[in-house]
Design brief:
There is one protein chain. The chain is α+β, with helices and mostly antiparallel strands. It has one domain. It contains two helices and five strands. A five-stranded antiparallel β-sheet has the order 1-2-3-4-5, with helices on one face. A hairpin with a 4-residue loop joins strand 2 and strand 3. The N and C termini lie far apart (87 Å).
Length: 148
């Protein structure tokens, strides 16, 4: 006698394992939503990180001017000082341009984004300023909080 259990199983097609189109579309939609939420946060974090380029460049320039002041006759505008008034220098990573305004007794350093650079659209912190008195200011939507 023939065993009918196995005969019926032979005639049924094997079920193919895998994902359906609906499942794949659903996963892609979830990934799209997550990416849409994460990308703005990522770009803002990168923008904040690039702001440190301006701050470190201002501090380094101020340190150089203070060294001139102490070593070259208490003058910030001594001809041998590396920074001269109105001569802009680039920040270390190149995102900002540092413009010094130097007199014999004072200086004011201003960092502004390079016009075609990635920071040019940073409305939160449009420019940074540091003076010989250590006063740190910033312009933009965040104001002086840019230094924090």
């Amino acid at each position: 006698m023939m065993d009918t259990r196995f005969a019926a199983a032979k005639h049924q097609p094997a079920r193919i394992q895998g994902f359906t189109l609906i499942e794949l579309l659903l996963v892609m939609a979830v990934i799209g939503v997550l990416a849409g939420l994460a990308y703005p946060s990522y770009t803002e974090a990168v923008r904040k990180t690039r702001r440190t380029d301006a701050m470190s460049a201002l501090m380094a320039a101020a340190q150089g001017l203070e060294r001139c002041h102490s070593q070259l006759g208490n003058l910030y505008d001594h001809p041998d000082c590396p920074l001269q008034s109105g001569v802009a220098i680039a920040s270390p990573r190149g995102f900002y341009r540092i413009t010094p305004t130097v007199t014999a007794a004072t200086y004011r350093l201003t960092a502004t984004p390079v016009p075609e650079g990635p920071q040019a659209t940073d409305a939160g912190c449009a420019s940074f300023t540091l003076t010989n008195m250590g006063v740190r200011t910033a312009t933009g939507d965040l104001g002086d909080d840019c230094w924090d």
